[in-house]
Each structure stands twice: as structure tokens, then as C-alpha cells.
Amino acid sequence: MYKVLIVEDEAPSARKLKMLLGKLEDDFDVIASLESIEECVEFFETGEKVDLIFMDIHLSDGNSFEIFEQLEVETPIIFTTAFDQYAIKAFKQNSVDYLLKPISLADLETSVDKFKKRFITDNSPSKIDYDLLGQVVAQQMNHDYKERFMVSFRDELRTVKVEDIAFVFAESKAVFIQVTDGKVYDVNYTMDQIEKKLDPKNFFRVNRKYIVQINAIDSVSWYSKTKLKIFTKPETPSELFVPADKMGKFKEWLNR
């Protein structure tokens, strides 16, 4: 029986991971599911021991690597994350295991097998400095984002400053930039490509069709128990909702 700790600020993701662990041949006892840095620090300070931790990088009150700045964690960790090329590069360079969301049963089985081989079968696995790893991830992520985009307007080429972008949206298999003065320009990028060129401190990928800039948000209201509605200036062409699986990260982003 392996004692497991899940650190995940999105309840649906935590429940899914617990369900997948229950499908594995090995017995996993999830003793706690925590949502924040504060809860993690309090848990570790109790001295309770676990065999394995599944930890999301982005928590409700900050980056999970902040935990390791406050205390030393020797328990093996499998990090979980949405696709982040910079964090993944750091993990690979430091032989740290990770799972990409949405997590599949096959990927989970592979990660658990690696954990057992490295920490159970091997007598003296190399120790990982998670605090140092966090610094490496931060360095990898500290890269230059675009300051402007070149766009076509009639027979002209124009530049649009990133700070003037209210939101980016996809429509009819094309991608458009909506600027704060109301003008709309089409761009030769996919939504995934343009998302990587925008600073995530200022822009948030709400769903498959929209990326919104923080200063363009006029208000946010509850649409249902599991969905938020965003109102922007200028207004989006269609209603803009935050899905349940992005609720935690969206609120964290707003609260930075």
C-alpha cells in the first residue's frame, strides 16, 4: 500500500487522478488532497509521511515551487501540468517525472512504474533538489514575449502593440486580434501559436476560441455554479465563459 498526497487546486482534476489511481494494480491510499501552498506547508510541518506526491505546478495561491523555498521535501514527486514547454524542458534536463494534463491511465501507469523502479527497486536513488529545480523552471520561463504584431490592413502593413490587444479570438477557421480601439485584424497564427507569444501574466487562454487581456476585462459574474461569465470592453463577438476545469487557474490569474 502506497500512501499518496495529491496537490491540485482544481477539484475535477484531483477527483479524476484519484479515480485513475484506483484502477492501477498497486494499492494507492490517497490520504489528502490539498489545493494551496499554505495547505502544503502546514501538512509537511505535521511530519506526516507519504510515499508519493502528485503536484500541480500552478496552485490557487502561487507556484508550487514556492513550497520548497520554505521547507525541504524528500518525498518523490510526479509533477502534473498543462503543456508548458519551459517547465517540461527543465524536468527532462533534471530527470524529473511529470504528467501532462489531461492525464491518461496509460501515462499514469508509466509514471508509477518509473517511480517504483527509481525509489523502490533502486537502493540509493539520487536526491532531487526541488528548490533548485524551481529556479531552473523560472529561468526557462523567463523569456521574451512579443511586443507587437505585424498585421495587414487593406493594402497596408501595420503594427499592433501587444498592450493594445483586448483579446484574441478564433472564428471560421481564422484567428483575429481585437484591439482596444475597436479595430479587428486577422493574423497568420493558430490560437496555440499566438498563446505562446503572449505573456501569461497579462493574457489568459479562457477556452479554445478566446485569449483575453487582463485590462480588457470589465467584470466577471457567476453564470452557474460551475461557470463564470466574462464581460469585456470592447465586447467579444460571442458570450465568453470560463469552463469549470479552468476556474481555479483563472481566479489565480485575476488575483496576481
UniProtKB/TrEMBL annotation:
Q: Which GO terms describe its molecular function?
A: DNA binding; phosphorelay response regulator activity
Keywords recorded for this protein, A-Z: Phosphoprotein
The answer to whether keyword Phosphoprotein applies is yes
Read off the InterPro entries from this record.
Answer: CheY-like_superfamily, LytR-like, LytTR_DNA-bd_dom, Sig_transdc_resp-reg_receiver
Location of the Response regulatory domain: 3-116
HTH LytTR-type domain spans which residues?
Answer: 159-256
Q: Domain of life here?
A: Bacteria
Which residues are recorded as modified (4-aspartylphosphate)? D56
Supply the name of the protein. Response regulator transcription factor
- Taxonomic lineage: Bacteria, Pseudomonadati, Bacteroidota, Cytophagia, Cytophagales
